[in-house]
Write a structure and sequence with these properties.
The protein is α+β, with helices and mostly antiparallel strands and 128 residues long. The chain is built from two helices and ten strands. The N and C termini lie far apart (37 Å).
Length: 128
């Protein structure tokens, strides 16, 4: 029997996903991170990217958020998380254009530039 852990993906409006899963890949500031059952306890932050729930084949785009894993419970909190199945190519292209305009502003700091660059890279890959 395959071992699983609890996953909840929560936005301010609702719980987007709540189920038992065997693995989740998240885009953290430390890099892509795959969480498996019995992973060490962590708290980290999301950078723009895709959250991939492997066995469910579900994918979510998140711009930011926090992640906590402890005692085989993974909680992802984000105010900017979208189910990829609900994103049309036009919406993705619109988000991509807005991000490129934001990146070209002169008054953004290095941290913001880093975050926007990751968002553009991720949206570009999704739109292919």
């Amino acid at each position: 029997m395959e071992k699983n852990f609890n996953l909840e993906i929560i936005s301010p409006e609702k719980i987007l996903f709540s189920d038992k899963v065997s693995s989740v890949t998240i885009p953290s500031f430390e890099g892509e991170m795959t969480i498996l059952p019995d992973h060490i306890s962590i708290i980290t932050f999301l950078r723009p990217g895709v959250i991939n729930i492997n066995e469910n084949k579900k994918k979510y785009f998140a711009e930011e958020g926090t992640v906590e894993f402890a005692k085989n419970n993974l909680t992802i909190l984000s105010s900017t998380i979208i189910d990829l199945d609900s994103l049309s190519k036009d919406v993705i292209l619109s988000m991509l254009e807005a991000s490129k305009k934001e990146l070209n502003q002169e008054n953004i700091d290095d941290k913001k530039r880093y975050i926007i660059s990751h968002k553009i890279d991720c949206l570009s890959q999704i739109s292919l």
